[in-house]
Amino acid sequence: SRMSAKDVEYISTNAELIGDELVKFSASVKNVQSDHFATEFATCVAARYALLNGFGFARLVTDSVSRDDDIRTATSVYSITARLPPGARKLDAEVVAVNCAENGIPMV
Hints:
The protein is of the alpha+beta class. About 25% of the residues lie in helices and about 40% in strands. The protein has two helices and five strands, in the order ββαβββα. Strands 1-2-4-3-5 form a five-stranded antiparallel beta sheet. Helix 1 crosses helix 2 (about 95-100). The mean pLDDT is about 90.
């Protein structure tokens, strides 16, 4: 079982452009027992990045989670696009941003 969302401490985020449409996001959380919180945080950061840069969609290319004591860091690479990308691991940035706000996940 994982800890409640109210116990989550959102530590840091980083975005790095690694290609024309590829952006690598790192998002760290503390006080969780599941990698899910770190990947959700990275998804929220990717959604905000897409919206701030005039894009509406993103597609997850790859992701991984590392652990260091009680800190989990998700490293996710997204393809950021103006049009709905193909594939199963895509997101509508506006929908994700609303979901993040409703669930109290920062989009730093």
